[in-house]
Amino acid sequence: MRNTQSTQLLSELSHAGRKAVRLPACDVPEVSLEQLLPKSVLAEQPPQLPELAEPDIVRHYTNLSTLNMSVDTHFYPLGSCTMKYNPKRNERLASLPGMIDLHPYQPEDSLQGMLQLLFELQGFLAEISGLPAVSLQPAAGAHGELTALMAAAAYYKSIGEERTVVLTPDSAHGTNPASAHMAGFKTITVKSSEDGSVNMDDFKSKLNEQVAVFMITNPSTLGLFDGQMKEIADLVHSHGGLIYLDGANMNAVLGVTRPGDFGADMMHFNPHKTFSGPHGGGGPGAGPICVTEKLGEFLPSPVVVKDGDTYRLDNDRPHSIGRVRSFFGNVGVLVRAYCYIISHGPDGLRSVSENAVLNANYLASKVKHFLPIPKGDRCMHEFVASAAKLKAERGITAMDIAKRLLDYGYHSPTVYFPMTVPEAIMVEPTETESKATLDAFVETLFRITEEPADLLHDAPHTTPISRPNEVQAARKPCLRSPMCGS
Ligand SMILES: *Cc1c(COP(=O)(O)O)cnc(C)c1O
After folding, report:
1. Contacts of 178 (CB under 8 A, 6+ apart)
2. Is 479 exposed, middle or buried (0-12, 13-18, 19+ CB in 10 A)?
3. Is the pLDDT of residue 478 over 80?
4. What average pLDDT score do residues 420-429 get?
5. Is the separation of the CB atoms in 206 and 188 below 8 Å?
6. Per-residue confidence at 1, pLDDT binned at 50, 70, 90?
7. 175 alpha carbon to ligand 1 midpoint, in Å?
8. How far is the CA of 77 from the centre of ligand 1 (A)?
9. CA 445, CA 404: separation in Å to the nearest integer?
10. Which of 81, 174, 236, 460 has the fewest CB atoms within 10 Å, i.e. is most exposed?
11. Cα 412 to the chain's mean position, in Å?
C-alpha cells in the first residue's frame, strides 16, 4: 500500500509553529511593511501558508515524485508511444555547458559547433529516410505533419493545381486527419481490409485528381507493414498526388528500409520515440521532416547550410512557407537524437529495429494464446491484442486489464486504439527490455485474465485513487484534494 502521507496536501500536513528555517534575531532596526509599501497593495490578512519542517517538505515532494510510473522505474509497454529506455549518456551530453549555455541570438560565428551538429543531423535524417531535404523546426510529430502538408499546399499552388483532399486509412493516428484539416484539406477515410492493410478497392475508388496527399503510417499502428506500399505509391503518383509517411514507427525499420525508397515524398520523425528523447510528461518533443528534392524549397526557413568550412542559417528561400517555430526548433531534443544516432552508427540502428521487432514478436507469440491478436500473424515493433472474447465470456474489458496491471507494477498498454480492433490492447515492448522482463509481463497478464471479474472492475487497488471519471478529469480537473468529487 502507498504511504497515505504522500497523498495529503501540504496544507493538511501543516502544523502551527513548525518551521523549516529559523533565522537569527534581527540586529538592525525593524521596518514595518506599511512604511515600505502603499496600503493599497497590502493584504488584510497574511496568506495562510502551510507551516512545515524541511523533512516534511522533502518527504512530501519525494513521495509525490514516485506516484508516477516512468521508463526509469517500470516496464512501460504503451503501444504507439515507443517508451524505450533513454540512455543517460545522451542526457549528459545534452547538458554540457557548451550545449545549454548557448543563446539563439548569439552571432552565427560563435554558434559553429551547434550549427555543425544540426547540419549533420539533417544529413543523418536524410540518409535514414531516403529523402534529401530536411527541416528540423517542427516541435512534435503532429507539428511535422502540419508543416509538411503546408509545404505540399505551397507546392500545388506553385504548379497551379488546386487539390483539396487528403486520404487517410481508418487505422491512422488521430493526428493525421487533424493535421490535414488544420492545413485546409478535406479528409476522406480509406477502409482497411480484414488483415489490417489498406483496402485497395476502397482506395482506388477514392483516388482521383482531387487528392493532394495520401497519408499513411507504415508500419501501421497495428504493428504491420503494408506490403502494398509500392503499388499504392505508384497509383498516387500516377494521379499527380504525394505520399506522406507518418514516421512515428520508424523504430521498426531503421536501416532495413527507407520511406524514400518505398515511395514516400514527405515524412516526419519523432526523435522522442525513435531516437530515445525522454517523453511522456508532455514534451518537449521534436518533429523533423524530410521531403523529396522538388518539395525542399517549400520547407520552413531557415535551414542550416554549409559554405566551405562555415555553417550558417539560410533565410534566403523565396518559396519557403516561412517559420513554424521560434529559433531552430527544440534543440535539446535534437541534440539527444544526434547523440543517439552517432553512438549507435548504421549497424547499431539496424539492430535497434531488429531487436524491437524480435521483442514484439516474442511477446505476441505468447500473448496470443490467451488474448487473441486479430490482425496479422507476425508483427513489426508492436501488436494489438483483443479482450473481446474475455468481455463476451466473463465481462472483463481491456480497461480492466490495463488498470489491474498498475497493481502489479506495469504501466498500462495503450487501450481502445486503433479503433478497428474491439477491446484493443496495444503492446509495444521496445528493444530495450530483457527476455526476463517480457516473460514476467506475460505471466502477469495471463494471471490477470484468470482473476475474478469483480476484482478487476475495481482495479487498481494500490494507487492513491482508483478510477477517476476520465472525461471529467481531463475537462474539469479537480486539483484541490485527491478525495474531492467522491
Ligand atoms: C506519436 C504519434 C504521432 C504524433 O506524434 P507527436 O510527436 O506526439 O505529435 C503521430 N502518428 C503516430 C502513428 C504516432 O504514434
Report:
1. 142
2. exposed
3. no
4. 96
5. yes
6. very low
7. 7
8. 16
9. 9
10. 174
11. 16
Cα 270 to averaged position of ligand 1 atoms, centre (Å): 7
CA nearest ligand 1 atom 15, residue: 80
For residues 283 and 329, the answer to whether their CB atoms sit within 8 Å is: no
Q: Please give the distance, rounded to the nearest whole angstrom, from the Cα atom of residue 486 to the centre of ligand 1.
A: 34
DSSP E strands, 163-210? 165-169, 186-190
Q: What is the pLDDT at residue 469?
A: 85
Determine the residue of 173, 334, 380 to mutate for testing ligand 1's pocket, defined as the one with the most ligand atoms within 8 A of the Cβ atom. Answer: 173
Ligand 1 pocket, Cβ-based, cut-off 6 angstroms: 80, 140-142, 173, 175, 217, 221, 246, 248, 270, 285, 287
pLDDT, average across residues 20-34: 92
Closest approach atom of ligand 1 to CA 82: 15
Q: What does pTM read for this prediction?
A: 0.90
Mutate to test the pocket of ligand 1, among 175, 179, 218, 381 (most ligand atoms within 8 A of CB): 175
**Domains of the chain: residue spans and CATH:** 4-65 (no CATH), 88-344 (3.40.640.10), 351-475 (3.90.1150.10)
Q: Which residue's CA is the closest to the ligand 1 atom numbered 3?
A: 141
Q: What is the arithmetic mean of pLDDT over 100-117? A: 96
How far apart are the C-alpha atoms of 388 and 394, rounded to whole Å? 10
260 Cα to the center of ligand 1, angstroms? 19
Going from the C-alpha of 6 to that of each of 12, 56, 104, 409, 481, the distances in angstroms are 11, 10, 41, 18, 12
pLDDT in tens, 121-172: 999 999 999 999 999 999 999 999 999 999 999 999 999 999 999 999 998 9
| Ligand 1: centre distance to CA 145 (Å) | 9
Q: Are 221 and 380 in contact (CB under 8 A)?
A: no
Instruction: Enumerate residues 6+ apart whose C-beta is below 8 A from 230.
Output: 262, 263
Atom of ligand 1 nearest to the CA of 142: 9
